[in-house]
Design a protein that fits this description.
A: mainly alpha, Arc Repressor Mutant, subunit A, two-stranded antiparallel ribbon, 5 helices, 2 strands, 6% strand, B: Rossmann fold, 6-stranded mixed beta sheet, ABC_transporter-like_ATP-bd (chain B), ATP-binding (chain B)
């Protein structure tokens, strides 16, 4: 994957792993690759991967099993919680950006409805 | 954490010209460090001083607490640009030379890296493309078992696939407690593997910062941060 050099990389790795878990690419209970393998795959520093995994472990989304490696939590509630958090993050960002353009709350809802409607009718999913 | 490299008040003159002045630098065990600075800033000279190859400097350079030249040579792996070898020498001969000279050289590790980077050992040094020569330098440098590895501009003029392979081999074969210093004058290609960034400007260390801190604190890339320093926009406190 490609990283944005303006944002701390450990944070982007966390988001990448959240995404993998929420979309089911990493299943509950699945073992995630070893730290060094992840570092090679993502072309990032081993220490940075370690920091990201450390935080994911303390958040409970990953579980570290001694001598065995790191596993995705099997607790659905935790996964749902992360999904909710990520959705809120995206909405928050969109909301703030639209507010900066002086779009009102009602307009945001109307625009979003229209946008989704248009998306459904365009074949390629491109909206311009 | 313990400092693997400790440099104090290091000054280096050559032919009455000041090359480096009053360098103070500590690098902790296990770090991957980008040594950045424009051409002629003194990056190679600093590497040569750390490796104990350049002589006649004032000040101290300690590797793992030792400041004797022999100790430095034993604990620092630095291949430069293989300038000391006859251009007509075949690659396999150079590898035999490394095996003979460095007791910590692991042929097994070299073969792994050479396999990964697809180094062709039948060729002569002079016949190597720029990318292949850099791959060989990486293979030879990383195959020693030392505390410090110095890579002097390993990405100069090479294609993006070779670059990616070289970066991957650095991540793959770096021992977790070893220090790697990579110099470059163009940063974005290595930014993602760096723990720390050391910038040389005006013959001395301008700053040393954590790469993640630069991203978090300035919300800008390592490349922009580095350029802003060279353009004189002092964003430091």
């Amino acid at each position: 994957m490609k990283f944005d050099d303006k944002i701390p990389i450990y944070y982007q790795i966390k988001n990448y792993i959240y995404g993998q878990i929420i979309t089911g690419k990493l299943a509950p209970g699945e073992k995630i690759p070893a730290v060094r393998q992840l570092a090679v795959d993502l072309t990032v520093n081993v220490n940075t991967v370690q920091r990201a995994l450390g935080e994911l472990i303390s958040e409970g989304i990953l579980e570290s099993r001694r001598g065995l490696g790191n596993f995705v939590t099997e607790d659905q509630a935790t996964i749902e919680e992360v999904k909710h958090k990520l959705i809120m993050q995206q909405l928050h960002e969109m909301y703030e950006n639209l507010h900066d353009l002086n779009v009102t709350d009602d307009e945001i809802v109307a625009y979003l409805r229209q946008y989704i409607k248009d998306r459904r009718t365009t074949k390629d999913g491109q909206y311009n | 954490m313990a400092n693997t490299i400790e440099i104090e008040n290091l000054t280096y003159h050559k032919n009455y010209r000041r090359i480096l002045e009053n360098i103070n630098l500590q690098i902790e065990q296990g770090k991957t460090v980008g040594l950045l600075g424009e051409n002629g800033a003194g990056k190679t000279t600093l590497m040569r001083l750390i490796a104990g190859v350049a002589k006649g400097a004032h000040g101290t350079v300690k590797i793992d607490g030792e400041d004797q030249v022999a100790a430095k040579k034993a604990e620092v792996s630095f291949s430069g640009q293989l300038d000391g070898f006859n251009p007509s020498m075949r690659i396999d001969k150079i590898i035999r030379f490394y095996e003979d000279v460095y007791s910590d050289f692991s042929t097994e590790r070299y073969n792994q890296i050479a396999g990964f980077l697809q180094i062709d050992e039948g060729l002569r040094l002079s016949a190597l493309s720029k990318g292949m020569k850099e791959k060989l330098v990486i293979g030879l440098t990383l195959s020693r078992d030392t505390k410090v590895y110095l890579l002097d501009e390993p990405f100069g003029g090479i294609d993006s696939m070779s670059r990616k392979k070289i970066i991957q081999s650095i991540i793959k074969w770096k021992a977790s407690d070893a220090v790697i210093v990579v110099s470059d004058h163009y940063v974005s290609e290595i930014a993602s593997i760096l723990d720390e960034v050391v910038i040389i400007k005006d013959k001395t260390i301008y700053t040393k910062k954590s790469a993640e801190e630069i991203r978090a604190q300035y919300a800008e890339g390592i490349e922009q941060y580095y350029e802003s320093i060279y353009e004189g926009n002092d964003m430091d406190d």
